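Researcher: We're teaching a course module on how sequence relates to structure. For the next exercise, students receive a sequence and then see the predicted structure as tokens, so they can try to spot secondary structure elements on their own. Here is the exercise chain.
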Amino acid sequence: MDIEEVISDQIAGNDANKLPTAFYVGEPNNPMLMATRSGQNARLRVKMSTANDLIYVGARKIETQNILGFAQVTTEEINLDFNVPEESHDIYEIVAGIDTNQNQKLDDGEVTTVFEKTPGGSGQYWDRIIIVDKEQFDESQSTVIGYNVIGSEYAGDLVEAFGQGSIAVDDASTENQIMISSTEPGLSHPLGAKWDGSNQDVTYRFVFDDGDPASEDVDDSKALKQIVEKMISTHKASMLAAYTGTPEWPVSPYYQFDESIDLIDTEKEFIGINELGNAFGKVDFKGQVRFSYKKVGDEIRIGSTEVIGSFSDLYDFAYGGGAGRARQASMVQAGHASLANGNNGKVFFTHLNFDSGWSNNWNGDY
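Model: And here is the predicted structure for the students to work with:
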């Protein structure tokens, strides 16, 4: 008697969200996050190693013995339907056992097998399931919309758009008909879309162009300063070697960069709101930089710098990202496919373009 796979049936017949995950301990979607089909009704499909009508599978909240729902294993894949407590996002486990008293159900004392496929998962929540019900979804949605607090600009607009399901935010244009798959890199959980038979859906992208408030913040960011200083250090020797003194302030070639930076960390604010971090999180800066410079002894003096680039991001949330904002938003994302009344909780892309022009933000001796 072996439970081989547990598949979320939140979207009927779709296999995008399941256990075990592709990786071992540490996979973001292990435990698996999902939501009910409606109200308190949770649906799963369970794959067994064998079919035997004396075997039953069931679901129960961890650290309890009460079986919430059960199904007879008449085939190797069966449907498991049960109700969860109201306003909860509790953790559940899938169990199996033999109907020894032949009363055609799985009694608490008949459980002999607990679904566990992740090596090294003993004592942890690996291969367990977090289920968000309708009341919890509604509560989390209201909380997430409320994160657009006074003093927040585009970061608040994005989280409010996520909670409300809006396809427009201030200071950004919207690109529609953008394809996304359940295996999209950076997607914390295969949730936040209504996957079709190919595990794909259509979403949108918010684009912040050069000159928009978010782009202006990037020009003045600590992250861009790190990139510029790294590029100066990397190419200092070649710029000095190329220096002839004529002209006094030559312009270097464009140097390409591709840097992954966590804006939550670099843009920490002791007072106020970290707009860039809250809006975009960890992103890959890609672009080019060139310098107006002169040689001063063994040093290089930067007169002005031009940085042109962009970054793209997938706007989604991980349940394990913390007990506060990320967790609340992840529960809205979990409910999008079955509990939302529109695009609430739908994942989307963001893209930001920046162009510093010839700037003195980083001038000085290096």
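Model: If you want an answer key for the exercise: The mean pLDDT is 94. The CA atoms of residues 156 and 357 lie 28 Å apart.
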